[in-house]
Structure formats: structure tokens, C-alpha cells
Design a protein that fits this description.
Elements lengths: L7 E12 L3 E2 L5 E2 L7 E4 L1 H15 L16 H12 L16 H14 L1 H6 E3 L8 E3 L2 E3 L2 E6 L3 E7 L5 H8 L3 H6 L2 E19 L1 H7 L3 H13 L11 E12 L8 H5 L2 E7 L2 E3 L18 E5 L8 E5 L2
Antiparallel strand pairs: 1-10, 1-11, 2-3, 4-8, 5-6, 7-10, 8-10, 9-10, 11-15, 12-13, 12-14
Length: 315
């Protein structure tokens, strides 16, 4: 695998139609919102989860592509695997509840975890629990995604006619038709009719030197971002799609321009005939709510691009 020699900053646009992109458990699973602006939010943790899930599907048996943070997994047991590798003759490793490395072992443990777990060498991890494998700072970081415009979450009532037990079935079959209808199990789901979300990402070549994140891993990261929603469909997220992935490639490992200045070159506005109306334009109030990606236009300012920076349109 080729070492990563260039810094990257990227803009990722994705949308949701009649779905809940990231429910907030502290708010009854409502779509996450910025309470001051009503812009929708999707956490970085949510996006990383989808990348991990795609890696499990696409590279399940490939060496180096195991996933560290998995649902239902016991992290200390994964740490134990690393200790068994560096202490093959120590019988205590198999049963010990606490293990701490020597100074010489610490680097070997972190190296093992990075080499074997894609998400550790990509996003980093805190592995200093009972069976201590230390900490790794990952070269790839993601911001929260925020909707381009305010969203209006809807609460939709749903019903279930099937009974969960015999007592419930007896209750549903008693009485006349109107009474039986009242015995249906009611529920609710929350959706966003349409929202276009924007996230920013950062890839540090200098941090990649420490974890072994390579050009091959970077190519897979682009693949995951482009395809992860295709394998994440559910009743809550029936229609989510990656729309644009625009990366700024720096000629050096440390970078050739500030990330925020490059992100400002990507603008997303509402399509209004031949015009594009950017957020903040008072004339946006005269437009109907956006209900599809075609209601927006994405523009990239390529003029006066800093020396040593290239623009890659990956999606």
C-alpha cells in the first residue's frame, strides 16, 4: 500500500426524502435540529457509523478491514486479541480483566490495532479501558452535517393491526367494528419531507503516518461515502442519497491553503429559473419548499485557486 502524501479537505452533500436522517433519542427520536435556526443536523458519529457498516459489507473478509466499533461487541475482547499477539506465551492474557502495556509494548499494541481495524486507523479510537491499548488520533475527521435550509419535521401516525399476544388479540376481536378499530395499536414516526445536508471532512497526511492510513484506504473512504446510503435503506431512512463529493487535494502533507477558504468556494443555492439564490437572500421566501435535489444548484469557484491545490469531483 502507498503511503498518503497529500492533505485533503472535502465537502459532502447528501439528501433525505420522507425519512429521518438522524433521530435524537433525547427528543423522542425527532430529527436533530439546531434550535436557533431550525437547520437539520446529522452527527459525525452517525456518518462514521454508516462508513463502518459499508466497510463490513464490502470488505468483510479482507485483511486489515475489520471494524473495531461494532454493535454488541466487547471492546476489551478486541484489545485482548492484540495482547495475545504481542504476549503469545503469557497465559494470564486470556483471563485477565486488566492489562497495561510497558513502554515498549504500547507502540506494538497501537500498531496492531491500526493494521487490523479500518476504523481505528481511519478515525482513531480511545482504547484505554480495562485492557489498555492506548489511544490513536485518526487522520480522517468529519464535521456535523447541517441542512442547507431550515427543515420542517413531520410527525406521522401509524397503526398496527397484528396482536402481540392472546390477550391483545381477544381485546381486538371484541365489540363492533368501530370498537375493534379503536383497539389498533397506534404509533408515530418522524420524517423530514426533504432536506439537503452538507458536511465537511478533513484528511491529514501527517496523522496518517502514525496510523498507516494509506492511499488504498483513502480510495475506499471515497467509495464508502459515495455508496454507503445504498445499503442503509430502512423504514426510517427509505430515501437517502449521496449527491456530491468534492475534494480539495493539497500538493503537500501539511497543506497549501486553509480548509475554510476552500470550503467557501463550494456554494449551494436554490434554483429560481436562470438564477441561483443563496442562503440569506430575502427572495427565498417567495420560493416553494425544496422537495428534490434539482431544486438546488451547486457551484464551485475555480478562479484564483491557491497554488498547489486541485479540485476533485468524486460524486
Amino acid at each position: 500500500m502507498t503511503d498518503l502524501a497529500n492533505r485533503y479537505d472535502f465537502v459532502f452533500l447528501f439528501d433525505v426524502t420522507n425519512g429521518n436522517p438522524n433521530g435524537d433519542p433525547d427528543a423522542g427520536n425527532l430529527p436533530r435540529l439546531d434550535p436557533e435556526t431550525n437547520h437539520g443536523l446529522v452527527t459525525d458519529v452517525c456518518l462514521k457509523r454508516k462508513i463502518r457498516n459499508y466497510a463490513e459489507l464490502a470488505r468483510r473478509d479482507a485483511p486489515g478491514f475489520s471494524i473495531y466499533v461494532q454493535e454488541g461487541s466487547i471492546l476489551n475482547e478486541k484489545h485482548r486479541i492484540a495482547y495475545k499477539k504481542i504476549r503469545p506465551d503469557d497465559a494470564k492474557v486470556a483471563t485477565a480483566k486488566k492489562l497495561n502495556p510497558s513502554d515498549a509494548e504500547a507502540d506494538l499494541l497501537r500498531k496492531f490495532m491500526c493494521e487490523n481495524f479500518f476504523d481505528v486507523r481511519t478515525f482513531g479510537a480511545v482504547m484505554s479501558t480495562g485492557i489498555n491499548c492506548g489511544q490513536v488520533r485518526g487522520p480522517v475527521q468529519l464535521s456535523f452535517a447541517q441542512s442547507v435550509e431550515p427543515i420542517m419535521p413531520l410527525e406521522v401516525s401509524i397503526t398496527r393491526m397484528a396482536a402481540t399476544n392472546e390477550a391483545e388479540m381477544a381485546k381486538q376481536t371484541e365489540g363492533d367494528e368501530d370498537e375493534r378499530r379503536e383497539n389498533r395499536t397506534m404509533g408515530r414516526k418522524h420524517i423530514v419531507p426533504y432536506g439537503l445536508y452538507r458536511a465537511h471532512g478533513f484528511v491529514s497526511a501527517k496523522l496518517a503516518e502514525r496510523t498507516g492510513f494509506s492511499e488504498t484506504d483513502l480510495d475506499f473512504l471515497w467509495e464508502a461515502l459515495a455508496s454507503m446510503f445504498e445499503h442503509d435503506h430502512s423504514a426510517a431512512r427509505g430515501e437517502m442519497s449521496a449527491r456530491r463529493l468534492i475534494a480539495f487535494k493539497h500538493a503537500s502533507a501539511l497543506g497549501n491553503a486553509p480548509a475554510h477558504a476552500l470550503f467557501d468556494r463550494v456554494t449551494v443555492g436554490r434554483a429560481a429559473g436562470e438564477e441561483t439564490r443563496l442562503p440569506g437572500d430575502p427572495r427565498l421566501d417567495n420560493l416553494p419548499p425544496a422537495r428534490r435535489f434539482a431544486d438546488y444548484r451547486v457551484a464551485i469557484d475555480r478562479s484564483g485557486l491557491p497554488q498547489g491545490v486541485d479540485i476533485l469531483e468524486l460524486v
